[in-house]
Design a protein that fits this description.
- It is built from six helices and no strands.
- The chain has 160 residues and is mainly α.
- The protein starts with a helix and ends in a 5-residue tail after the last helix.
- α3 packs antiparallel against α4.
């Protein structure tokens, strides 16, 4: 249990610094955009309505974003750039960050323990499992990249 508590505590500090930093960068980027040529667009009624919605309802989105992969940084950056008030943002950061740290500490340590046991007891099986996982990941990446490139190739006229 001490290992999990120590890992969760370290991950919690890391996520608070990283997500809080992303929020601050978003805040500064939003301030810069409000002084740029985009200021006119940012003062439109539609943009201001979206900004008010994020300021009011964005905290649950920020909290849940910690349980996703790839959306967390965008949610924190947008919360900062849209000027979500700190009294709404900080509870979402603390709660979502705690959930993220506990999830990664327990599941992450469990996976590391299983892999360590596998490699120490049956190294050939461990290498095989890692190899299969790598081949599967490469296959998924290749499939997605071909699928994404397919519409672009179909729209180019063929010469006869």
């Amino acid at each position: 249990m001490d290992k999990i508590a120590l890992t969760a505590g370290a991950l919690y500090v890391i996520v608070l610094l990283r997500a809080g930093g992303t929020f601050a960068v978003g805040w500064l980027a939003g301030a810069g955009a409000r002084r740029s040529r985009f200021a006119g667009r940012m003062s439109s009624a539609r943009f201001q309505r979206a900004e008010r919605a994020i300021q009011r309802w964005g905290a649950p989105v920020v909290a849940v974003s910690f349980l996703t992969v790839g959306f967390q940084t965008a949610a924190n950056f947008l919360a900062g750039s849209m000027r979500m008030p700190l009294p709404r943002y900080l509870p979402a950061l603390f709660g979502g960050g705690a959930a993220w740290a506990l999830l990664y500490a327990t599941a992450g340590l469990g996976v590391l323990h299983v892999l360590g046991s596998l490699f120490s007891e049956r190294p050939a099986l461990g290498v095989s499992v890692v190899g299969v996982l790598l081949v599967a990941a490469c296959g998924v990446i290749a499939y997605r990249s071909r699928r994404a490139a397919r519409p672009a190739r179909e729209s180019v006229p063929q010469e006869s």
